[in-house]
Write the structure tokens for this entry.
Amino acid sequence: MATGTLHIDLDAVAANWAALDSMTNVETAAVVKADGYGLRADKVALRLARAGVRRFFVATAEEGIKLRTALGHGYEINVFSGHMERDTPLIHEAGLVPMLNSAEQVTRHRAALPEAAYGVQLDSGMNRLGMEPAEWASLRSDLETGPLTLVMSHLACADDPAHQQNAAQLAAFTEMTQGITVPRSLAATGGTLLGPEFHFDLCRPGVGLYGGFPFEEATPVVRLSLPVIQVRDLAPGETVGYSATWTATRPSRIATLSAGYADGLIRRMSDVAHLWAGDIPCKLAGRVSMDLLTVDVTDLPEIPESLDILGPHQTVDQLADAAETIGYEILTSLGPRYRRRYSGDVA
Ligand SMILES: *Cc1c(COP(=O)(O)O)cnc(C)c1O
């Protein structure tokens, strides 16, 4: 077996959802965009449905229709990108709820599917998606008379509790939604952790479910084990890998492992990240290449069949630090070549 094995603990995903849910007195939905942050939206959503989740969020209508096929009816699937040009048949067929982001989307939705439920996304300061205050003010009374299910906005800095933009966005969202009777939502994972004034009627965590920062108490969800293909001994002065960036300073033993940047182990972690043989860390030696990693295993008493690059000793966030990125990017980059092993699988 020459490909890595990605262990995905769906019971841990459910436990993380329950832990976040227990921090609030309101409904907790689940964000499963980008194929469940790379872990497979169908499996994640089915496990979460069993744990009690009734409302899911995806980025696009295409993701929504796939999720509907997996989940069946009886769950609300909300689409962050709203109602785009070719989305009408998907929204209609799968009963998706688009979060309308602009007057243009409102017009499109009303013309195409006048009876169909919708939410509204407001811009409270992130300047990415959602209606600006003036646009919302002009549409609000009209939108409120239709099948409006949710009014939401998104925090730009919620992973940093001390950031002043959190309070500013909270104030802006509160002001824009004063007196509204439909449910409101502002918090993703970070906002859920910021406390009850950010919770409104619905929290919608994503990354925390998958064990990522800023939910530091999360149960780890992924373990990634990479098989050793070959081991060789080097004399001092010999180099390893492309561009010869690593040079042996002592008699060294190098293991070559099956996985590389094509599998989401991005090249930026070259010469920095560690792999683990049980409790013993072993540093990457030389450049990450497309399909292979080279690791300094000189200090191991014996060479195991595989080493772990994600697991209890190294979370997605710790690996992300080594690669100067964020846990979200590590998760969503994990490639299709791994053998995926699920525990707690419902399907
Ligand atoms: C991705 C996303 C979420 C989930 O964010 P996490 O930080 O992963 O919890 C919630 N709301 C919106 C609008 C998003 O784009």
Observations:
- The mean pLDDT is 97.
- Residues 31, 33, 80, 154, 188-190, 204-208 surround pyridoxal-5'-phosphate (CB under 6 Å).
- Residues 163 and 208 are 19 Å apart (CA to CA).
- The domain at 10-210 is CATH 3.20.20.10 (TIM Barrel).
